[in-house]
Design goal:
Helices cover 14% and strands 47% of the residues. By secondary structure, it is mostly beta strands. Among the domains are: 4-121, no CATH class; 163-175 and 285-373, no CATH class.
Length: 374
């Protein structure tokens, strides 16, 4: 059994504090010790102390501790007084112990349950209607403002003071030429003429050669000693019992371990490398036609014996000018839409305020044709 520690209690009737646990009545008001909770001075509930933290513990003298009954006090059902387990009758009112069923710990449980029930039954404090409405009004105003700003920024803007100042087109045909190339590769392509071949280094393979023993320093946790710490149990009779515990303390120890470490070598691999000649069609030159009207046509191309027609491209543009500020912008558009645009005519262009792709539109912003800014 552990050492006995003096407990203390506070009088719930007159407010006196720090009364020793072996005193059964309040020295100030004379009321019997009733629904109280014992505590240790200078240490909170569930205290855990180490060896060097026990200097202020108020231990009961070992000779006196022999006479301390280690059972909890019993709780008188008539006068609510706590009595020693040795007492057959209540020391406050004289009632027999046989008429009382609860002890100190059962009394605490009932008290805590009663306090929780009373707390749950308390009505919530009334809130001020004025104070609660103000934040809601501010939040509503902020939400409306944010919604309006988002709607404005994500909306479209249509400009109608624009005229088509010019149109243009460019059509281009790339001419490919059949050319002979000298190349080398690990495979001979179809249609190639072999010139020579040789065995050449293709790559290296990583291959396990052997294992070697290598010392490796490792660490491990080794038991060094045991360290004592102490907890304190409320005995329910005006005293606490000190309980000693031991916990292991470890230290870090280094040791050398021998491991088998693989050793690899790089092994060269050879393959046949081919040198060959091959003919390929290669982009050679561009032939263009262009204009500033709607009479777009493909250019006429004269091909040499080693030439052929390659990729064909076509670009259609219009430039618009603002009547108010004189600004201009050039756009690309599809041929079918471009043919419906005429120089000198007014035009509406709609674009998102956030920078989305513009389009030709009617005055209400309804899309007619897509535009690509240059």
């Amino acid at each position: 059994m552990g050492k006995i520690v003096m407990a203390y209690w506070d009088c719930p009737f007159c407010g006196s504090t720090g009364i020793q646990g072996n005193v059964s009545t309040c020295p100030n008001c004379g009321r019997a010790r009733g629904e109280v909770k014992f505590y240790m001075k200078d240490h909170g509930e569930n205290a855990v102390l180490h060896e060097n933290q026990r200097g202020d513990i108020e231990y009961v003298d070992e000779e006196q501790a022999k006479y301390v009954n280690r059972n909890p006090d019993w709780y008188c059902s008539y006068c609510n007084a706590l009595n020693s387990d040795n007492a057959a009758n209540c020391q406050n009112c004289g009632a027999s112990r046989t008429d009382s069923e609860s002890n100190y710990f059962e009394m605490l449980k009932k008290k805590e349950a009663r306090e929780q029930q009373n707390a749950a039954a308390q009505p919530a404090p009334a809130r001020s209607n004025t104070g609660s409405k103000r934040p809601l009004i501010f939040l509503l105003i902020a939400a409306v403002a944010i919604f309006g700003l988002v709607r404005y920024l994500t909306g479209n803007q249509t400009r109608g003071d624009l005229k088509v100042s010019s149109i243009s087109w460019v059509r281009s045909i790339n001419v490919e030429q059949n050319r002979e190339y000298q190349e080398a590769d690990w495979q001979l392509p179809n249609g190639a003429t072999l010139i020579s071949q040789e065995q050449a280094l293709h790559h290296y393979d990583t291959v396990l050669d052997h294992y070697e023993s290598v010392p490796v320093t490792r660490t491990r946790q080794v038991l060094d000693h045991y360290e004592s710490y102490y907890t304190y149990n409320d005995m329910g009779n005006g005293y606490y019992e000190e309980v000693e515990h031991e916990k292991p303390v470890y230290r870090t120890e280094e040791y050398t371990d021998i491991v088998q470490q693989p050793v690899y070598i790089q092994v060269p691999r050879y393959a046949t490398r081919y040198h060959y000649s091959i003919w390929r069609w290669t982009p050679s030159r561009d032939v263009q036609s262009s204009g500033s009207d709607h009479n777009a046509y493909w250019p006429e191309v004269t091909y040499a014996a080693d030439e052929r027609e390659g990729k064909k491209t076509e670009v259609y543009r219009m430039t618009v000018t603002g009547e108010k500020d004189g600004s201009s912008a050039t756009y690309r558009l599809a041929e079918a839409d471009w043919r419906n645009v005429n120089t000198g005519t007014g035009i509406y262009i709609t674009a998102s305020r956030m920078g989305g792709h513009p389009c030709i539109s009617d005055k209400d912003g309804n899309r007619i044709a897509d535009l690509i800014p240059e």
